[in-house]
From TrEMBL:
GO MF annotation: an example: nucleic acid binding
Database matches in InterPro entries: DUF4268, tRNA_endonuc-like_dom_sf
Domain DUF4268: 229-364
UniProt name for this protein: DUF4268 domain-containing protein
Source domain of life: Bacteria
Amino acid sequence: MYKINKTSNNVEKLDERLFKELNIRERDHLQEWIAKNPEMLGEDLLIIQKEFDGFNDTNERLDLLAIDKDGGLVIIENKLDDTGRNVAWQALKYTSYCSTLTNSQIIKMYQAYLDKWQNGDDAKQNLLDFLEISEDELLLNRNDQRIIFVANNYRKEVTSTVLWLIKHDIQIKCFRATPYSMGEDLFLQIEQIIPLPETAEFMIDAKEKQKEESDKSKTVEESEIRLVKFWSLLKTKLAERNINFLERISPKPSYSIGFTKGSGYYGFCIGRQTFRVELYFSNDITKETIDSMAKYKEAIEGSFEGKIEWERLENKKASRIRFDMTKEQVSKLEGKFSDELYWDDLINWYSDAMFRFYNAVNPYFEKIR
């Protein structure tokens, strides 16, 4: 890794280090960094537990547990300079323990975490805000659980096991955490190494499992297939316009898709009553980010055609800047995302809206970063 020196028009090499050389500890440091900045793992995650040891009849202690945007559980195991030989087996045990957790159990676990480690917010309301759903739509842990490993070095027995599990439809990602130094300054690089981001989408749906489902489950499955198809078409449309927003993003059965920039997330979102694009700050407790952006509100809105909404989301952890489709446009589409007849118009709106929104907002987001 290199530091760019614009003054000398040159680069300066950073020194790759080991965590132990820097006296960086697993639980006190790396785990805390991930807990406070889960977006470093390439997606929007909500941490709901850490150092959890509440599994019945075991003394196992799970590093971090998170919820993703689909309401699924994500088990996060972090190591420092070496994974050890048993990290895959350890994570699989935790995953099996989590596989039976119900809505009420997950909410209870998250509430205990908020009471102990955070400011005691209401767990259920936080989940509804994060997932952007109503209470009657709250259905957690209905799909297979996912695993994320973070470490500096992966032993062959670990990578071999991970690749075999991926081949058999177990959802696992491996991230390499590498510390660097330059003088007294320290740097951290987090990069996904398994599966490689550019090849991950080719591994999705490699083998479909046939299950008997209730009428409700079948409806959910049809909805998920429709969402993946829609986001795939949007991704194709953007590529045709040489817009690389979703170049390395795999379409998922979610009501939003997007890409991360620093502490922000640019999202294409299907709302309950409208469609929107947004810049979402998931960890803006002090509102420093949204307030810093608001200093450029006049300049941003002056360069943008349309009404931009600025949402501090008081008493919430997050904040965001959004641009919604007008009521007239929604009316013309009859609000029917489920009807593919309207998809061409909707995809054209999304690609144009995000292109204009990003070009108006991102220069100022780069400034405050």
